[in-house]
Amino acid sequence: MNTRPQRSGGRSSRQKLRSTKGSTPNPAPPGQAGGQYKPLADADTQRIISAAFNLLNTLGMGDVPPRLAKLFLSKGAERRADGRITFPVSLTEDVITMAARKFVLHGRDPERSIEIGGDSVHFGTGGAAVQTLDLESGTYRPSTLKDLYDFTRLQDQLENVSWFTRCCVATDIPDNFDLDVNTVFALLSGTTKPVATSFTLAEHVAPIVTMLDIAEGGAGKFSARPYIKAHISPVISPLRFGEDAVDVTYACIEHNIPVSCITAAQAGATAPATPAGFLVQSLAETLASLLMVNLISPGYPMIFSNWPLVIDLRTGAFSGGGGETALLNAASAQLSNALGLPSGIASSMTDAKAIDAQYGAEKGITALAAALAGGNLVYESSGMTASLLGASFEAFLLDNEMHGAIYRTLRGIEVNDETLDLEKIEQAVTGEGHFLGQDETIAAMERDYIYPLLADRDPPVTWAEKGHATSWQKANRQAKEILANYHPQYLDPACEAEIKEKFRIYL
Questions:
Q1: Options 3.20.20.480, 2.20.70.10, 3.30.230.70, 2.30.40.10; which CATH number does 97-411 get?
Q2: Which among 225, 242, 462, 472 is least surrounded, fewest beta carbons within 10 Å?
């Protein structure tokens, strides 16, 4: 049956379609294919990979905790005279072969799960901002647990944010265990997307899994289908392990929690300033995490999160928005793709404090480069400001719109008999002289175009008549409206009561 809209009235039809846009399919949903941009020549990619293998083979890793060192040595690693553990190239290659290539990040709602790996691109969140850009005052203040919950339920409404990592730290909770527990509780309460958190200490993992089992209705239920992944940084640049993070990794694997093992070297500080040298060291460090995870549990779901970070060498300040960040993270994605590993990179970390021209330029350049390079999970890409020190409600909405445009860019152009349709071109040329109101035009509006809610496309006179609002002002109003009216109830009341009886919940 032909379900395409019938021709009607041009402008009025278009306006009607826009007014009902929320009911139409997303023309470019998350998961579009990347990999078109390759900042490294193929030969240089292989040269960097070989150099990273050799670095692990000759220099290896320092400060390896005893039980991890014992595991490494039992699998073929060697100990140098200075105590560093080195890894034969053949061992590294074998681990890459056994590593997970694709896996599902479950949502608590199965319909919101995503598969990562291959060439799919997803934008999400990250960061541990200690300040929030206040919706009322427009100034930064310490982030709170309520902020975290509000960010969680706000992004729950945003279709272009594929997963949610806690984007800010609840600085109003001083106890580390209570902080970890309440962070996860806020995620449970505010969204059913895949989520991620961090664990301060390994002994915090089991009690939090108990809380998650309560939410799911029985012991072992969460681990059977885990919808929370852990952000862990087991490697401290340059080239050594951190014992607490290694212990957290062991605990997460014990409870079947997927891990994102993050390397966050800083060019010119904890890694070489030269881009090529930086990429060699950072790749070697992320491979060390891969060795750890897969020698503990072969094929375990791990996101290969090689996050090149940059500092301004004039001042030593972290820089999240420069061209070097775009370049290095794109190159990181290219290296991960060459190894066939599910990749995580960090982009869209603007240094801007306000929603201004700097914000837009830095976000757009770095996010687009990351997506075109084929980073599977692009972290830090939603809501982050002020060099990761801040998070903004308005930024979440603006970034969601930007991600839609980037997904549309990745989708490309479909060329077939229907989209070429020379007969329709002739009909328009020899007939009315335009394509307005054609069935094909209306269909293309739904299928091929994204219409922003915040970006302004009115002529100046109309913009002025409507109050000459900026995108920030419109995003501020929309954020307030969502937070005032959207209060999801994702926890069963009885389960919530049991959790609050067993844990100190402050939300």
A1: 3.20.20.480
A2: 462
Q: Are 45 and 332 in contact (CB under 8 A)?
A: no
Token pair 């209060």 in the structure block, residue: 487
pTM of the model: 0.92
What are the angstrom distances between the C-alpha of 383 and each of 66, 116, 158, 174, 197? Answer: 40, 22, 12, 24, 16
Could you give the 3-state DSSP secondary structure of residue 309?
Answer: strand
The CA distance from 183 to 473, in Å, is 29
What are 96's two structure tokens? 């890459």
Query: Is residue 19 over pLDDT 60?
Result: no
DSSP 8-state assignment for residue 386: G
What tokens appear for 105 in the block? 């990040």
Locate 32 and state its tokens: 């579009």
The alpha carbon of 305 is separated from its chain's Cα centroid by a whole number of angstroms, namely 10
3-state secondary structure 492-504: CHHHHHHHHHHCC
For the chain, the distance separating the N- and C-terminal CA atoms, rounded to the nearest angstrom, is 52
- The order of strands in the sheet holding 317-319 is 266-267, 309-312, 317-319
Q: What is the pLDDT of residues 311-346, one digit of tens each?
A: 999 999 999 999 999 999 999 999 999 999 999 999
* Residue 106: C-alpha distances to residues 21, 50, 196, 259 (Å): 28, 34, 11, 13
- Give the whole-angstrom CA distance, residue 438 versus residue 423: 13
* Residue 302: strand, helix, or coil: strand
**Domain spans of the chain, in order of start:** 97-411
